[in-house]
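re: ur question from yesterday

yeah so i grabbed the chain u mentioned. its 244 aa long if i counted rite. heres the sequnce exactly as i have it in my notes:
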Amino acid sequence: TYYNLNPETPDLDFHSLPLVARSSTTSAAAFHRTRITIAAFIRSLLSIFTFHFPATIFTIPTHLSITPSLGRRVTGTLFGNRHGHVTFAVQYDSRSVPVLIIEFAVSTSTLVKEMSSGLVRIALECEKKIQTPRGGRGRSAMRLFGEPAWTMYCNGRKCGYAVSRSCNESDWHVLSTVERVSVGAGVIPTLVDNDQKGGVSEGELLYMRARFERVVGSRDSEAFYMLNPDGNGGAELSIFLLRI
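ran it thru and got these structure tokens back, copy pasting raw so excuse formatting
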């Protein structure tokens, strides 16, 4: 029942009226139907968002890249003198400054021989140094790419110790020489000291360049899988960085 608040009605006591008008049974049923309609509409919207949008939009990624600007696909270059240690350089593209340079514990000729015989899996491991801040959880203070030394395993066999270093003039000379090469292998003529003749002579530096798929497992693990140019078959070379 709705009250008539017409001021022309003199016998109506305004102060005796309730603050909220009482609804009839019909109005209550209409209100209930309205609530059901709104709930059904909301459920339909939720179903649209659930099934018609990618799930990644509504989920938080569990694997965060330490260097987000590096990306998923990178350029990897292996180079070194035939009997010298091989160096692995990682770049965003073929012309950018390398973000990682590691000198392996094996020679270039040994790595070439391993790759010619089958799949090669290189694992680089280092010890995690934990720094516990006051009132916080322990965590490694150094980035994975900044670790200076690694224990190297090639196809399960311990080879020695690999070393990370900054890019020097010799490294940049090699990378700038092959910057126009996206995928391939070859020989670069170089000048090396010749102590017996008191001068210099030409030497050979082998290189292999390819695109690698970079997979970040956690703050303490990353992997680089060499991509075949034709897109067929698995990775012939895989390099794992593990901090344990």
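noticed a couple things. Residues 1-7, 12-24, 44-68, 196-201 have pLDDT under 50 and may be disordered. also Residues 25-51 form the longest helix (27 residues).
anyway ttyl
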